Amino acid sequence: MIREQFPEGWTAPSDWTVVPLSEAVEQIDYGLSAPIPKTVPENGFPIVSTADISKSGRILYEKIRRTSAPEKTASRLTLREGDLLFNWRNSAELIGKTGVFTEQSEPHIFASFILRIRCDETKIHNLFLAYLMNYYREARIFVNLARRAVNQANYNRNEISVLKIPRPPYDEQRKIAAVLGLVQRAIEQQEQLIALAVELKKALLHKLFTEGLRGEPQKQTEIGAVPEGWEETTLGKLAAKPHGFLQTGPFGSQLHKHEYLSEGVGVVNPTHLWGNRINHEDIPRVSKETVARLERHCLEAGDILFARRGQIGRHGLVTKTEEGWLCGTGCFLARVHHEHIDNRFLSYLFSTPGVIAWLNSHSAGAIMPNLNNTVLRSMPVFYPMFDVQVEIADCLDACEQKMINHVRKKESLSDLFRTLLHQLMTAQIRVRNRDMMDLEALFKE
User: I need a surface site. Which of 137, 237, 253, 317 has the fewest CB within 10 A?
Assistant: First the structure.
């Protein structure tokens, strides 16, 4: 079994042992086999379910619901601090999500499809075992070992009891958990900073597009309150020829699936429009010959792309990074070359709740909302003097760049965590006291 769980040829270090899980833990228990009611019962118990355990192993206490249970059952299922909660039944890729319960202000119990694993702390450190279980999930070990059913996979108590696990000396287990915990806390800190940056941007959008830079008087418009002194026009007028245009992307009959390549010129589709920027992940590519044939759909810096259907209001501003790429099927392309308009300002204006609400109220289709050229041309646009637009855009750019920096730091830390998790669990690297000191110094910088 251990050969199925580790790279071919892997052997445990001489001071590690490999044992069935049952030899390292005190008990493994099933949770409450009853549906969690939609209506919160009086005097109900908080109950941890599979949805409350994240892929990274964090227990999302703020999402926990309540249920009722007989006192005897609740007593048997009450969690202790340090208990592991293992997701034994779910879709295949989620089997093995494991969180560690921390002491809360009131007793919690756990639901069906979760196994409580209570460690024998003389044999195995609970945090080390939780990281090991999540490593097995990341390495798709549980996907390979679980039994499959329709849309579900199972890895039950009997099966996990005989699961072979490597067991380093206890002190090394503790150090491994400490190293991984240090990186994980740094990731969580970046997540908190990203959330703060998102809220700051939302607050700035509201303030700047309703009060301007200096708290101006407001006027009510089709897109809500805007500063009284701002000029009014429409997107169609701003994108009028000869200085701009508004057009649809190529139709499916013009850009065929078989033309997509692994390398070449990028094609921006509606799924790549998010947060008034272009998401570069999984961008499809086409040949230069295809680009030459669809030249009229090539992008320039400052272009704004809108999704034609689905999530109305989704859009993205093209930067120099995407210049020369193609507008994909399912998008509208708005090109504005106007001496009194900063296109960054326009893109942020289109992110405001008032504009998004206006677009949704003018979209057609109940099941799949969609926009047409006429609606986009008539969309109202309000704007101040050019230098004010630039100042507003600069302010929001700075906020967005701060968020991007935190996202990049989080991605780098997540890559480091995955690398360390694999190397520590397979003994490719060993933890010494010096390693801990170096890591702690690094994260204090």
Answer: 253
- pLDDT beyond 50 at 246: yes
Here the tokens at position 375 are 């609606």
Closest C-alpha to 111, from 63, 80, 81, 77: 77
194 contacts 410 by C-beta, under 8 angstroms: yes
Q: How confident is the model at residue 445 (pLDDT cuts 50, 70, 90)?
A: low
The reported pTM is 0.84
Fold classification of 2-167 (topology level): Adenine-n6-DNA-methyltransferase TaqI; Chain A, domain 2 (3.90.220)
- Alpha-carbon Rg for the chain, nearest whole angstrom, is 28
Task: Give the closest residue to 180 by CA, choosing from 138, 120, 117.
Answer: 138
Packed helices 170-211 and 433-444: angle between N→C axes, nearest 10 degrees: 10
Residues of the chain with CATH 3.90.220.20: 2-167, 231-383
CATH class, 231-383 region: alpha beta
Note whether 153 and 147 are within 8 A (CB): yes
Number of residues in the chain: 445
Query: Is it the case that residue 421 has pLDDT exceeding 50?
Result: yes
Burial category of 247 from C-beta neighbours within 10 Å (exposed 0-12, middle 13-18, buried 19 and up): middle
Tens digits of residue pLDDT in 22-73:
999 999 999 999 899 888 888 899 999 999 999 999 999 999 999 999 999 9
178-to-126, 131, 363, 366, 417 alpha-carbon distances in Å: 12, 11, 53, 52, 12
C-alpha 383/C-alpha 51 separation (Å) is: 45
